[in-house]
Specification:
Helices cover 20% and strands 38% of the residues. With 135 residues, the chain is of the alpha/beta class. The chain has one domain: 2,3-Dihydroxybiphenyl 1,2-Dioxygenase, domain 1. The strands form 2 sheets. The chain has a 4-stranded mixed beta sheet, covered by helices on one side. Strands 5-8-7-6 form a 4-stranded mixed beta sheet, with helices on one face. Pfam families: Glyoxalase.
């Protein structure tokens, strides 16, 4: 459904350090660094057919997080969710909402979640869908 997800940054080098560490937990490597026609830097992290981008806003206005917006990252285990969270906090992110842990998502089953904000205030979620118990 999605081709990519993009967030803005006011300090692209700070964001690179943050996302190199955090997305490294998920197995993403170094981003492709690109400058668009206006000279603004963009970082493209590619992993498992997905693309996550960090950009300097091309309108030269300050980057700001979306009110109500969240970028969710799929994890392979509760331990990976915790590592994502801890790495984010250790690299300038902020833990938000409840501590990482198991949540009942009603008809969606149980989820192991962690929420953080990146150094620019973008809200990130690390998510693992718990296996449904055998009937």
């Amino acid at each position: 459904m999605f081709s990519h997800v993009m967030v803005g940054s006011n300090d692209i080098e700070r964001s690179k350090r943050f996302y190199d560490a955090v997305l490294g937990v998920l197995g993403a490597g170094e981003p492709l660094r690109n400058q668009n026609a206006t000279g603004h830097t963009r970082l493209f992290y590619r992993h498992q057919g997905n693309t996550f981008c960090v950009v300097q806003p091309i309108n030269n206005e300050p980057a700001c997080p979306a009110n109500g917006g969240t970028v969710g990252f799929q994890c392979q285990s509760p331990e990976q969710v915790q590592a994502f969270h801890d790495t984010a906090v250790a690299n300038g992110g902020q833990s938000i909402e409840e501590p990482p842990g198991l949540r009942d998502a009603g008809g969606l089953g149980s989820l192991y979640l962690a929420y953080v904000r990146d150094p620019d205030g973008n809200k990130l979620c690390a998510l693992y869908r718990m296996p449904k118990p055998a009937a």
